[in-house]
């Protein structure tokens, strides 16, 4: 069953950035008369209003789109880009994404959907306890939060790589949703090793990130639907993390070059 993607991020409203001082506040205005509008309330000393379209004084691009950058001469070079690394549980996408981000020559951030989901402490809706409206809502909220963070990084010249188990049979919620949250220049790449590999890696996990073998097999089978989609697919069954990250960078460079 398809679930509708969450509402887009609400438009930013101008706020106030506090600069604490010990100055006394001006007296409040007198109540309005019955025949006239209330007078404006003057700002308190030491307070300022940031310009529109900012979040924490970080300017956002209009509408949040991320344009596809020009291809660098070798590898991804100094390009500022947004990457979505797709894969089943146990594919190694979080480890690879973090390694790739740490070893680029330019500032790059890693944004993990699972990490953001687990920001919810009290009331965390774990899908392993049963998929319901609340767990779906928390997933949608985490995706919007990740997209919002990615746009902030990109607006300030910092590349980002996100990772998520996006299914090809849920295009509206999955890949389409990510491109709406981050921008049309988002570059998706699929990391899909063999089933035995993901089962072995999943067995090494602990806590709520470890799934049953049946769940892993089911997710892996659905991920096979990416074959024939036109997205680049990396089978990292025999690659270590460093090699996988290098292949990922080469794939991204070819994608940017349009080859």
Instruction: Provide the gyration radius in Å.
Output: 23 Å
H/E element sequence: EEEEEHEHHEHEHHEH
Tell me the CATH topology of the domain at 82-257. Answer: Rossmann fold
Secondary-structure-derived class: alpha/beta
Structural commentary:
The protein has 259 residues and is of the alpha/beta class. The chain has a domain of 176 residues: Rossmann fold, CATH 3.40.50. It contains 7 helices and 9 strands, in the order βββββαβααβαβααβα. The strands form 3 sheets. Strands 6-7-5-8-9 form a 5-stranded parallel sheet, sandwiched between helices. The longest helix is centred in the middle third of the chain and has 23 residues. The protein is globular. It starts with 16 loop residues before the first strand and ends with a helix. The N terminus is likely disordered.
Summed up, what is this model?
The chain has helices at residues 93-102, 113-117, 133-155, 175-182, 195-203, 213-223, 241-257, and strands spanning 17-18, 47-48, 54-55, 58-59, 82-86, 108-112, 159-164, 187-191, 233-234. The protein is an alpha/beta fold and 259 residues long.
What are the SSEs and their pairings?
Elements: E1 17-18, E2 47-48, E3 54-55, E4 58-59, E5 82-86, H1 93-102, E6 108-112, H2 113-117, H3 133-155, E7 159-164, H4 175-182, E8 187-191, H5 195-203, H6 213-223, E9 233-234, H7 241-257
What labels would you give this structure?
single chain; 259 residues; alpha/beta; Rossmann fold; five-stranded parallel beta sheet; two-stranded antiparallel ribbon; 7 helices
